[in-house]
């Protein structure tokens, strides 16, 4: 999908730097509060104190605006590197921007509707938002395999998405609250046993922090 900002000769209003980030942050706030279906350019314009015409000159549709807002979130450019698979997974999925971040979960819940109803949005969301996250997660497991923490025949295509899959199932389908304890339980009871080197109990990969 070509964004308005990529079209040659298309006039762009001077929304730059901190002002643009403010508008994108406001978009995520409205998205988390109202959901994708009820998010409107009017609502964002009013909250951000900018004219709707200015928004439309910069973002052709609300899908363009939401995608840019999602991409504007500060994301790690490299996978966590704590020295162990368990540590890397906890560092990645706990805390701000992870699966224990209530705002992040609200945003993800809000775009589920858009994914099912807007094919163009779904394509760009998966390509530009989900795939980079999946690549970082895969890199964590591949590095752990190089360290000898993961057996060579472990099917990473199945195992890598298992942690977010289980946690999001608990949140969106069962109504649970995602906590650090939940992440730890999934890591310790599902992920580590699934990849453990044969003959080496998964418990050997679990550090003293399980007692916290």
Automatic annotation (TrEMBL):
Question: Please, which domain of life does this record's source organism belong to?
Answer: Bacteria
Q: Which residues bind DNA?
A: 40-59
User: Known Pfam families for this protein?
Assistant: TetR_C_11, TetR_N
What SUPFAM superfamilies does this protein map onto? Homeodomain-like (SSF46689), Tetracyclin repressor-like, C-terminal domain (SSF48498)
- Kindly indicate whether the keyword Thylakoid belongs to this entry: no
Its keywords, alphabetically, are: DNA-binding, Transcription, Transcription regulation
> Which intervals hold domain HTH tetR-type?
17-77
**What protein name is recorded for this chain?**
TetR/AcrR family transcriptional regulator
Give the organism the record lists.
Answer: Nocardioides eburneus
């Amino acid at each position: 999908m070509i964004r308005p900002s990529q079209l040659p000769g298309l006039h762009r209003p001077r929304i730059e730097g901190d002002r643009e980030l403010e508008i994108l942050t406001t978009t995520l706030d409205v998205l988390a509060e109202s959901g994708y279906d009820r998010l409107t350019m009017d609502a964002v314009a009013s909250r951000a104190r900018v004219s709707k015409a200015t928004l439309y000159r910069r973002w052709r549709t609300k899908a363009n605006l939401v995608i840019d807002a999602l991409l504007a979130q500060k994301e790690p450019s490299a996978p966590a590197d704590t020295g162990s698979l368990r540590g890397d997974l906890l560092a990645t999925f706990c805390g701000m921007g992870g699966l224990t971040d209530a705002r992040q979960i609200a945003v993800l819940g809000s775009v589920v509707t858009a994914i099912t109803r807007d094919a163009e949005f779904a394509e760009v969301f998966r390509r530009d938002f989900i795939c980079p996250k999946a690549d970082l997660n895969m890199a964590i497991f591949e590095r752990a395999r190089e360290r000898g923490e993961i057996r060579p025949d472990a099917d990473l295509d199945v195992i890598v998405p298992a942690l977010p899959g289980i946690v999001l199932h608990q949140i969106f389908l069962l109504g649970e609250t995602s906590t650090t304890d939940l992440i730890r339980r999934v890591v310790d009871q599902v992920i580590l046993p699934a990849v453990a080197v044969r003959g080496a109990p998964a418990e050997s990969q679990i550090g003293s922090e399980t007692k916290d």
